[in-house]
Write a structure and sequence with these properties.
The protein is built from 13 helices and 14 strands. It has 371 residues and is an alpha/beta fold. The protein folds into two domains: 28-86, DNA polymerase, domain 1, CATH 1.10.150; 93-370, TIM Barrel. Bound molecules: S-adenosyl-L-homocysteine (SAH).
Length: 371
């Protein structure tokens, strides 16, 4: 998949520090704003060039989604190499691309130290949603999730998260002829377990690429400190909670995080979040046949959510190899669960799985080529 142009670009090898890969050069992609403009301005001034070139570089990085300085054709060729020696554009390479019959496109990206993460482009009539990864692997071991089964590899840097967006945006523009309208942090990893990098990436998507904060959703298993941190931020990013079980025992069985942040404390944090933000929360609830689809649980969920403005996305379980004994709830069980919530005044929708034929659906993302 490497093109001669990619190969000509000098990549910066990553170093590993405590499960976090570092990059020796400042990574422009994750640092939009005044500081970067000043620094770029200085870079050009010191080389006898006008400072407006800083603005030209910014345009290439955040408007035109350039992945190499060689693309920046209005910057003098002699300056592109020194730029590449001073800054990284966080090159990530597609290792594998899969296209679903329903239009979903999954990419497996190879990062600079060889780690791999996946992202998924999901087109619908009104939206083009990008689902991106926040960690290589995941430590949380939710029982129904393929990524969790493979364990944690390392944190992504902010720029590595944004690079998935940049590459996907190029594909969206070139192949689909439309921009990405929404981003969801629902790929591999737990975003709130990589909080600094995720917040850096949120800001870069918002301030660099100009994506509206309301079009970006962070999805979490329920890490309370991260939820409260997001609550304190000024931008109205959306928050989704992966709930999957409304009672302690069942949730503990499905999601080990319940031990650390049990439901009562979690919902207290969500209430706090809502009092700060005054925004509707989404819950994700994966329906697994005979495991968490009893109508009594719809009632328990409604009790739990009492007083919160929320919406529940019901996701039929997507089968994964590590859990052959589990299957999606039947359409009638899903219908009963949905009606049970509605009867209690809890808005909900059943989500159609996308990209199932290419293992791109929720919970199916994993290091597919290594397993
Ligand atoms: N760690 C974050 C984001 C990644 S998972 C979180 O848990 O929210 C994105 C969504 O897919 C979560 O709601 C997750 O619970 C759900 N999911 C995981 N495995 C699934 C599966 N096999 N079938 C359906 N949904 C699944």
């Amino acid at each position: 998949m490497r093109t001669p142009e990619d190969m000509a670009f000098s990549t910066t090898p990553a170093r590993r520090e405590g499960g976090r890969a570092t990059c020796d050069l400042p990574e422009l992609l994750a640092e939009p704003g005044e500081d970067t403009r000043q620094r770029l301005g200085r870079f050009f001034r010191e080389r006898g060039e006008p400072e407006y070139r800083a603005g030209q570089v910014e345009k290439w990085v955040w408007e035109r989604a350039a992945r190499s300085f060689d693309e920046m054709t209005n910057i003098p060729a002699a300056l592109r190499e020194p730029l590449a020696e001073a800054y990284s554009l966080t090159p990530i390479e597609p290792d594998y691309v899969a296209r679903s019959r329903d239009g979903t496109i999954k990419h497996l990206w190879r990062l600079d130290d060889g780690e791999r993460v996946e992202s998924v482009l999901i087109p619908t009539r009104d939206r083009l949603t990008l689902c991106l990864s926040s960690q290589a692997g995941c430590a949380l071991a939710c029982r129904f999730c393929a990524t969790g089964y493979f364990g944690f590899r390392r944190q992504l840097r902010a720029a590595e998260i944004v690079a998935q967006y940049r590459e996907s945006l190029r594909v969206a523009r070139e192949e689909l002829g439309r921009p990405i309208s929404n981003v969801v942090y629902m790929g591999m990893g737990e975003p709130l377990a990589n909080l600094d990098a995720v917040i850096g990436s949120l800001r870069a998507l918002h301030e660099g690429f100009g994506l509206g904060a309301r079009r970006i959703t962070v999805s979490t298993v329920g890490l309370i400190p991260g939820i409260l941190e997001l609550a304190r931020r000024p931008e109205p990013f959306e928050l989704a909670l992966s709930l999957h079980a409304p009672t302690h025992d069942l949730r503990l069985e499905l999601m080990p995080i319940e031990k650390r942040y049990p439901l009562p404390e979690l919902f207290e944090a969500l209430r706090k979040y809502q009092s700060y933000k005054n925004r509707r929360l989404s819950f994700e609830y994966t329906l697994i046949r005979g495991v968490n689809d009893d109508p009594a649980l719809a009632d328990a969920l409604a009790d739990l959510a009492e007083g919160l403005i929320c919406f529940v996305n019901l996701i039929p379980f997507n089968s994964i190899p590590s859990r052959p004994e589990w299957s999606p709830s039947s359409p009638s069980a899903i219908e009963r669960f949905s009606a049970g919530l509605a009867a209690r005044g809890v808005g909900n929708a059943v989500r159609r799985p996308r990209g199932r034929d290419i293992a791109a659906a929720c919970g199916q993302l994993r290091l597919s080529r290594e397993s």
